[in-house]
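fyi for ur records
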Amino acid sequence: MINEIVKETKSRMEKVVEDFRHKLGSVRTGRASTSLLDNIHVEYYGSQMPLNQVATIHAPEASMLTVQPFDPSLINDIEKALRSSELGVNPSNDGKLIRIPIPPLTEERRKQMVKVIHEMAEDHKTAIRNIRRDSNDKLKKLLKDKAISEDEEKGGLDDVQKLTDGQIAKFTELTRHKEEEILKV
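which gave:
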């Protein structure tokens, strides 16, 4: 039973880390990256669709992204969604292709981005701690129901804490790496 709880805890924590990695990819650095547009949604036939499902996105050079909609009638909606996003970009279109120049980040904007990634990391660390709490509660309930001994409970709690510490260390490392990437001019 303890092994199942630890295995489930590890699986849930790894999903949180993967989510954090995915979200870090959409945080803007000095270079153009197609993942910058992952969080952009466009209205298409009455529902919100991710941009990458209604258009082809390319990064032909370090400071330029291009978006080519599958349906040319969407070009103005896509451009509007890009302008209203938090990316701070100024797209232009020629009727078939949207060009998005990626301006270099100012020092102030870089510091803002670092704050954003630290907030994201803290939110994900909180999720990890909540998973730890859930697992610890399950272990304590097993002890209370006399399904396991105190020693087994202590071992399980230690295993869950080691998992938590390992995952928190991953967040710290990923955050540090992304911070260096953002601050590098």
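The domain at 34-101 is CATH 3.30.1360.40 (Gyrase A; domain 2). thats all i got for now
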